[in-house]
Every structure is written in structure tokens, then in C-alpha cells.
Amino acid sequence: MTPALAIIPPDPDARDFAAELQASTVACRLRHERLGTRRALTRGQIEQVAERFAADRRALSGSKRLLDTKDPAFRAVMRVHAAATDYWHSMTVPFPEAGIRLIRRERVQEFQQRMEEFRTSLVRSARQLQAKYAELRERARDELGSLFNDGDYPPRVDDAFSLDWDFPSVEPPNYLRQLAPELYARESERMRGRFEEAIRLTEAAFLERFGELVRHLAERLSGEADGRPKVFRASAITNLSAFFDEFQRLDIGSSSELQDLVSRAQRLVQGVRPDDLRSDFTTRTAVAAGLAEIQDVMDGMMVARPRRAISLVED
């Protein structure tokens, strides 16, 4: 006789991390618009290139750069976009839907205010780029020669850049509760699965980032290069400290093993200054050994996790 399977009821005291995450966060989306700075070569231009090199034009493609993207005025605009994206990441955790992340409800107002500051900076930088636009066009005319085309250039560029954000609903609409209760229940269960996946993505993102920082610091502290200790920069410590702060803000408590590793690393480097690691061999050796132990555990955790291709930013 086949033995009956024992059914273990769920622990009523176990934390429902997916429900906690769903109740404590809202979806947050960031969108950029920016000036396109490249144009594809025309068919005639491709044919000229093919003829020059005795190539089949069907095997060729190409584009031209319309503006010098390394010019300080252009780079200033792009720095604002990059800083806003970095801030969005620092305030949110992943969600399994392209372009959407989750932000804690109590931090929405703080996020809103900071993004308004980024938008103001973007407008200011775009105006400065507009003031230099004519000069950049003339430079492009000289650089592109016969490839230059006035039609590729809009009259203004300061209105080509924008920064927008919103908080889209990821919950099933309430009207379904009355109109189609079964559909509402299915959608609610599907959304619960999304939040369970968000927990896994968050753990994986933290583990990967933490692993990179620990691995880099351990590598800098151990071994020698050309008979001398490897170069150690203060950023290796400050970046790890920044991670501790971010982990404390965003961790949802679903992985006690990861929490333990982060706490161990934090205790290991607590009070340790970059100069201590440069000049004190005992401190340097002790920290390197402790990090190596943490890294070994993390390597095992990462091997046990399925590899995922995750895209978290929509530009």
C-alpha cells in the first residue's frame, strides 16, 4: 500500500512577505525623453561607401553622429538624466514588469520632491545646451562634410529633453470585484505572484551587488602586485557603507541568510578607516579573511539561485 502523504498546514505565524510588500509599497515608473543624436545613412550614402570599398551594399549599415555628445553642455544634460535614474534605483526595489519598480509609501513625498529638483536642473541644463546649439551645429557641419543635412536638426533642442514619473496601479481594478468576482480573484492571485517574484528579484539584486562589493574589497586587500600590496582606494569602503545604508532602507526581511551576511560584513568593517587598511597589516589581514568567508557563503547562495535576465530601467 502506498503510504498517505502527510499534509502540513501553513504556519499561521509565518510572515507573508509578499502581502507585506504589496501593502507597504506602490509602483513607481520613470520615463526619459532625450534628443536623438544619430541618424542612419541614406541608401545613396551606403551605396557610395559600398562602391568605395567594393562591397555589397546589402551587407552594410551605418549612421552619423549629429552632435558632439562629449561637449560639456550636452554631457551636463545627460548627467541629470543619469542622476535621476540612480536616485530612482536607490529608492526602489525591482518589480517584474518593464520600467516599473516599487517604492515604500512613506517615501513617496520625499521622492516626489527630489524628482522635482532633478526636473528643474534638467530644464536649466537644456537651456544652456540650447544657447550652444548653433555652435554645435556648425561644428557638425564641418565634421560631417557632405553628410551634413539641415533637415536632421530641429529648430530647438531644449524642449527635446524631459523627465517624468508616475505611480501606476498594479492592482486589479476594484470594479471587477462586483462585476466578475472570479476574474478579480484570479487577477489578485496573479498579482500576488508578481509580488512574490519581486521579492526574489530584490534578493537577487542585493546579493549580486553585495557580492561585487565584497569581492572587490577582498581582492584589493589580499595578495600583492609586483611584490607590493595592491592599490586600495577609499571608495571600496565608502561604496560598501553606502550599500549597508541602502540595504537597511529597502530590505524587506525575506532572507535571513542575506541579512546575516550583511550584518557580518558591517561588523567586520565597522570603525575601520581606509588608512587602517593601508598601514595596519593585522587589520588588513583580518578584514580580508572575514570577507573571504562571507564571499564563500555568498558564492554558494548565488550558485543555488537560478540565473535571470533582469531589465530594470526603461529609458
Automatic annotation (TrEMBL):
Source species of the chain: Longimicrobium terrae
Tree of life domain: Bacteria
Protein name from the UniProt record: DUF3150 domain-containing protein
UniProt feature coiled coil, ranges: 119-146
Keywords tagged on the record: Coiled coil
